[in-house]
Amino acid sequence: MTQKAVRDMDVRRELEERTLEAEGIIRRFLPREEGYQKTIMEAMSYALMSPGKRLRPILMRECAACFDQTSPQALPFFMAAIEMIHAYSLVHDDLPAMDNDLLRRGKPTTHARFGEAMGVLAGDALLNYAFETALQSLETDGTNPAVHKSLILLARKAGIYGMIGGQVVDVESEHIQGMDKHRLDFIHELKTGALIEAAMCIGALLGGADESQLLTVEQAAAKIGLAFQIEDDILDITGDEKTIGKPVGSDERNHKVTYVTFAGLEGARRDAESLTREALENLASLPRKNDFLMELVAYLARRNR
Amino acid sequence: MTQKAVRDMDVRRELEERTLEAEGIIRRFLPREEGYQKTIMEAMSYALMSPGKRLRPILMRECAACFDQTSPQALPFFMAAIEMIHAYSLVHDDLPAMDNDLLRRGKPTTHARFGEAMGVLAGDALLNYAFETALQSLETDGTNPAVHKSLILLARKAGIYGMIGGQVVDVESEHIQGMDKHRLDFIHELKTGALIEAAMCIGALLGGADESQLLTVEQAAAKIGLAFQIEDDILDITGDEKTIGKPVGSDERNHKVTYVTFAGLEGARRDAESLTREALENLASLPRKNDFLMELVAYLARRNR
């Protein structure tokens, strides 16, 4: 095995462990499946615990570990909340009125399994429950300004100036001839980037970051988010179907304008690499060195190379 | 004119004034319609500012006025937030997968006007923006425990243990033969009641209510919510089409089991009256007498008699 292959294996193993840990935390906040409204709890759990790396809660926790207060008591609430927001966005994305997907990673999507009405409601329920969960941190940690800032940031980055905003422009752009680079950047920044920024910034805030450190983390997160998106676009062309979980070349067949359309395959690779390098430099400047976080970011940027 | 007719006219006039005031407050929190994601702001504003009495924000404000701190600085944020949650629930209720309604009070519903994908997203955006708006109160009033409690209560009463929970059971009950009274009470309590409880309890909390006063307000709100629902069911049978904004007798044609199915028309009237009387007694026990609130509650319970 090459040195890179050994390193990749180590990161993957470590990531699997963190994924299990994150899932353990998220599961603690799942509502009990009981009462007349039992079906909605089942649908929420189905959507939330469907296969995934739990990257957002992991990034949140690892960013907290870059600061002095490494395990703040509010952290688990926000780890669960951000995964709920990610999950709800997938449930609503898959609806017939949106992407109309019946399968996600080989499993029936939530509305395919529970019906369309329950798909709408399960998404609503997960979004609402995300805030219900994050707000619980006020009960024990209500005087902590970092908790206030984290709540405000979570709502902002998930909403029309964040993820939903990106989603709206993405949906509308399907009907627009001649997507320009600026509009595409906007979509990527908000649709993929905003929630990663929320995850990493909330981690930093709860860890005790000051204003300027928070800005550093936000910049790193924006670069990481964009690098992920570029990687996705590259993988759609060069990846193999089994790894990426959808048919190769689907973007081209759907005439979807991607990062590669503007930068070319080589240019896209170069940009993803330099974005990752800059993000790693940002992260290296934080008070505590977090080797796993650095390795994870580097690994995610070189997947399937 | 009879004495009752004069009194009704006075309350209606006063209510119209309060509605305009509440709309002025809500409008201040609307996002500016600009940027690539402009359409979603337009859809949110369309849904939020469509005709309505703004009962929830009005009840919130009037409940605050039953206590010593009559205009708490956090109040406007929560008034706007609760109306946003009410508006999102209507937008998603009207979707093809749910009630499939193209008209609401004679105007095209949000998805009929903006397309189904934008209907899903506008609902999501309003729910998220409700929390974004309410959370702003932490910036100026973050150390106030009443604000913390209000945020937690808002999320709880809007979610699976509140409004969404009721909605889920209502949707599922369409396919169930032999609805029982207990299940119907559950739906009413959550689907209609929970948000009215949130409105009135948040008003009370921000006004300075203590635990026992909060309980009194919650009990009053539950009774008022149920009385409203019973009135709706009665109006569906006895009302005229122009006033209620939908065809008379639609529940019966849809084989919908309502309060009247179990209690009969006279029984339903009696129950609505005694619930209202009890609620008024609850409200009369609060520190400050609020004549308008009492008159409003009584008026709403005798609409179209």
Provide a concise account of the structure shown.
The structure is a homodimer of 305-residue chains. Chain A has 305 residues and is an all-alpha fold. Chain A contains 15 helices and 2 strands.
Secondary structure elements and pairings:
The structure is a homodimer of 305-residue chains.
Chain A: H1 3-28, H2 38-48, H3 55-64, H4 75-93, E1 103-104, E2 107-108, H5 110-114, H6 116-135, H7 137-141, H8 145-158, H9 163-173, H10 181-207, H11 211-238, H12 241-244, H13 250-253, H14 259-284, H15 291-302
Antiparallel strand pairs in A: 1-2
Structure description:
The structure is a homodimer of 305-residue chains. The first copy, chain A, is mainly α. The first copy, chain A, has a single domain (3-302), classed as Farnesyl Diphosphate Synthase, CATH 1.10.600. The first copy, chain A, is built from 15 helices and two strands. Chain A has helices at 3-28, 38-48, 55-64, 75-93, 110-114, 116-135, 137-141, 145-158, 163-173, 181-207, 211-238, 241-244, 250-253, 259-284, 291-302, and strands spanning 103-104, 107-108. In chain A, strands 1-2 form a two-stranded antiparallel sheet. In chain A, a hairpin with a 2-residue loop joins strand 1 (103-104) and strand 2 (107-108). In chain A, helix 3 packs antiparallel against helix 4 and helix 8 packs antiparallel against helix 10 (181-207). The radius of gyration of chain A is 19 Å and the shape is globular. The two termini of chain A are 15 Å apart. The relative contact order of chain A is 0.12. At the A-B interface, helix 2, helix 6, helix 8, helix 9 and helix 10 of A face helix 2, helix 6, helix 8, helix 9 and helix 10 of B.
